[in-house]
Amino acid sequence: MRAIHSGALLGAVALLIGMPALAQGPALQASPGWGRAMPPGPDTRVKITEAYARLVGRDAYFWTWPMVNIFNRRLHFAQVKETARSGPLMQAPLNRLAMLTDYVEPEERSIACPNQDVVYGIGSLALDISPVVIQVPDFGDRFWVYQTVDLRTDSFVQLGKMYGTLPGFYLLVGPNWNGDVPPGITKVFRSPSNTGLMAPRIFQDDTPEDKRAIQSVLPGIMMYPLAEFDGTVKTMNWTKLPVVPPPPPSETETRWVFPEKFVDELPLVLADAPPLPGEEARYAQVLAVLTAAKTDPKLKRAMTEGAAEADERLVTPLFQFRNYGQQLPHNWSTISNESAFGTDYFTRTAVAKSNIMVNSPNETKYFYQDLDNAGGRLNAASRYTVTFPKGGTPPVNGFWSLSIYNEHHFFVANPINRFSVGTKNKDLKLNTDGSLTIYVQSEAPSDPAQRANWLPAPKGDFSLYVRAYWPKAEVMQGAWTPPPVLKAN
């Protein structure tokens, strides 16, 4: 998918979505002798220098990067007219869902670090246009979770097997919605913003039998505007969707944030995500400079230059997993506040840049790796092993996997069409001592006995990524961490 941008579109969206006025923070206590309260932020009557505007643009670009990312995905989906198949992707209009019917294909480039253990769905939320109904079918014993995030990429929904969610109808509403909840709705979830994304994940193992079995439940996964709710279960045959031209092939993730468009987009973005407690002065600072930049091209240019500098020097380096996160043994790293970032601007932007749309910690625990145990960059010119001791695979109630990504954090086609190993694989071979060794290398192992455990490495640099879905306490509390990645040659 490609982001669609234009000044006309932004103006139309502003009218369409009716962004709410920014909430003002509490007034500060009046200083002695002044006799009046002082508002947060700058005095908007004073002259602003270009250097200051550049500084504010640089700072704002960094901490709003995930918000602009999600906002521009909404602008893209606003142009989609019908639910359809588009090359390796599915697409749907705003407030509707599109589901795959098998693992994501390696050509996918919309969201970095996809998972080939689940069947994905995607839908863009525009809750100011309408609340939406989410259908949950009966998944039986199958693992599932519906991830739903707001403009900040923070989760505001708890729907999944780990929550004991029952089949039924659930309602997502925006921050200002005060309508009546119709009979038949099990629970209402209120989003802090009108814009967001929903991405169901339904576990599927690697057997032909399970790939057939999952088809019976996928048609009941639906999202649609509240006006269409009548209390009856709606279904969609996701295998029969029309096919539209795919996006041009790309090596890297679809670009969603542009420094040159940042100054024009930011007012709409901030209006859809009122300041969190303590952010009032930060918002006032940015909005004051944005207001001045409307009538002063030099200030607008300075803000744009600051955004471009932040993009190159601050945001881009965070694509590398080794540049952020909680540092663990053997050069692995992790985070503990995924999809609940709040005002942790650094982690939120780092995650959005490297692997946006992570689940909440109790839903999925993530472990990232760019390096081998000696600190060398993982590269297909070498061979590696990852050995889980007996009983030492990730402790989970759901499932676990070890995925491999190229330098751009995507899959690359390989002869056995394998991009992850774990619970989904029914033919992994244990060592005589009960341990499990995964062979990470570009060529198939010379020993036929090792080929069931082969994880093909793409050319050049690559990264490894452990997911623990519905993790047990040992994972959540840090008692379990991944084993070292050992260089074999």
UniProtKB/TrEMBL annotation:
Domain DUF1214: 364-472
Limits of the DUF1254 domain: 95-225
InterPro entries for the chain: DUF1214, DUF1214_C_sf, DUF1254, DUF1254_sf
Annotated Gene3D superfamilies: Domain of unknown function DUF1214, C-terminal domain, Domain of unknown function DUF1254
Pfam family, one: DUF1254
Swiss-Prot/TrEMBL keywords: Signal
Signal peptide positions (record): 1-23
Entry protein name: Uncharacterized conserved protein
Organism this protein belongs to: Bosea robiniae
